[in-house]
Amino acid sequence: MVKINGEIEKRLWDAANDLRTNSELSANQYSSPVLGLIFLKHADYIFNKAKSEIKRDSPSPMHFQEKGVLYLPKNSRYSNLLNLAEGDNIGEKINKAMELIEKDNPGLKDILPKNYTIFENDLLANLLKTFDFEIPEGDIFGRIYEYFLGKFAMTEGQGGGEFYTPTSLVKLIVEIIEPFHGKILDPACGSGGMFVQSANFVKKNNKSANDELSCDGQEKTGKTINLAKMNLAVNGIEGDVIQGNTFYEDNHDSVGKYDFVMANPPFNVDMRKVDPEKVKGDPRWPLGVPTSGKANYLWIQAFWSALNGKGRAGFVMANSASDARGTDLEIRKEMIKRDAVDVMIAISGNFFYTVTLPCTLWFLDKGKEESDRKGRILFIDARNIFTQIDRAHREFSQDQIQEVAEIVRSYRKEEGAKEYSDVKGLCKVATIDEIETQGWSLNPGRYVGVKDKEEAEDFDFEATLEEYNEELQGFNVEAKELEGQINLNVNGLLGVK
Prior knowledge:
Elements: H1 8-21, H2 27-53, H3 61-66, H4 78-82, H5 90-104, H6 121-130, H7 140-156, H8 167-177, E1 182-186, H9 193-204, H10 209-212, E2 213-219, H11 222-234, E3 239-243, E4 258-263, H12 276-279, H13 296-306, E5 307-318, H14 327-337, E6 341-347, E7 359-365, E8 376-381, E9 387-390, E10 393-395, H15 398-412, E11 427-431, H16 432-437, H17 445-448, H18 461-494
Parallel strand pairs: 1-2, 1-4, 2-3, 4-5, 6-8
Antiparallel strand pairs: 5-7, 6-7, 8-11, 9-10
Helix pairs in contact: 1-6, 1-7, 2-7, 2-11, 8-9, 8-15
C-alpha cells in the first residue's frame, strides 16, 4: 500500500502519467477513465466506512441510501477488482462495475466512464494498484481529483480549458464573494470547480457544505457534465448540473433567484455566431443584446440578472470587455450607474493553460446600493502578484490570495479588517464621476497608476514586456476581425459579392 504524505497528489499523478507514457494512449483518451478510477476508489472508501457504521450482517442498498452513500454491488468494489484472476479481462470487469453502480444509483446513469477495454490488462492492473493506498482523510479524493483535472487540462491544451479553471483563481473568487450560505449558480460550470471551492470555503468555517449551499450548474458539453458530476460526488457535494447552451437556455429559471453566481465563461464569442432570434426578448438581458463585437455582455448580464436583491457574483472575463465600445459601452455605463459593479481585479497573463493573455476578475454586488460603497468601485491591479510555477504558468499562493482578498475586506469594512487606503500601483477606489471621466472604462490600470521609481526596484522588465506583447497580440486579433467586418460592410454597400 502507498503511504500518503503532503505530496500524494503529485506522486499519484507521476505514477499514473508514467504508465500512460509507456502506452499508446493520448491524454484525451486517458483522462476520463483515470478520473473514473479515482471516483471508484473514493466511492469504495465511503462505502466501507458506512458499512462499518451500519450494525447489520447484510445491509441493503436502502441502508446506505439513508446515510447518503452510494451503494456498491459486490462486483463493483475496489477490492474485488484488485483481486481479479490473472486471465480475467480487467477492462470488461471495470466496465461492468461502472454499469452496476449506475444501475443501483440512478443519479449517475450514463455518467461514469465505461471505455476501459481500450487499456491493456497490465496497464489497468498497475493503475488499480497505484490508487490503492491508505487513506488518512475523506476529502483527499477531492484534492486528488482536482489535481488530476488540472494536470489533464494542462496536457490537453485548448481542450483542457473548456472544462477547467485554475484552482487559485477560483479560490480568489470564492474568498471575495464569501459564499457562507445560500444558492449558487454557475451557468458555464465546466468540471464544477467553483462548487468544490465554495464547499471548501464553508468547511473551512466548520460547517456542512450540503447544509449551507445549494449548487446549480449548466454546461453545454455532455462529457464535461460527466466530469462535473463525478467531481461533485467525489467531494460529497449535492448539486444539480444540467446540459444546455446558456445563451439560448435557462434551465434553472435563474432570474433573481441566486445569492451567488460564479463562472469562467467562454468569453470573446463572436456575436455573429449567436442566433439573434434565440436571444431576443430574454429577461436575462435587461439592458439589451449587443449588436456587434463579442458576446461578453450577454454573459455579464446573465450573471447580474440571476442575482437576488443581496446577491454577489464573481467571474473571469476578457480584458477587452472592460473597455469595449459600441453597445457594450452603453450596457457597461448603465451597470455602473446602477451600482452593479463592486470590484475589478486585473490578473497577469499565463494563469490559464490554454491562453497566455491576461484577464480580469469582475465582482458584482446587488446589495452594494444600500451600503456606504454606493457610487464607488474598487480597482485592484494584481498583475504583479503571482507565483511562477514554470516558465509558462503562474498561480496565486494561498498568502497571495489572502493579500488580495484582504484589500476587498478592508474596502467593505468587514469586521476585523484593516482600514482601507488607496495604494499607488495596487488599489484605488474610484467614484462614478472619475469613471465617467475615463470614458466608463473598468480597466484597473487606468485608476491605480504605477508605483514610484523608488518603490519599483523589483520591477520585472522581461515579464512586463511579455505581458504587453500578449495584450498587443489580443488587440491585433481584434483588429483583424474588425478589418474583415469593415470589408464585408463596404462590399455590401458597393454591391460587391
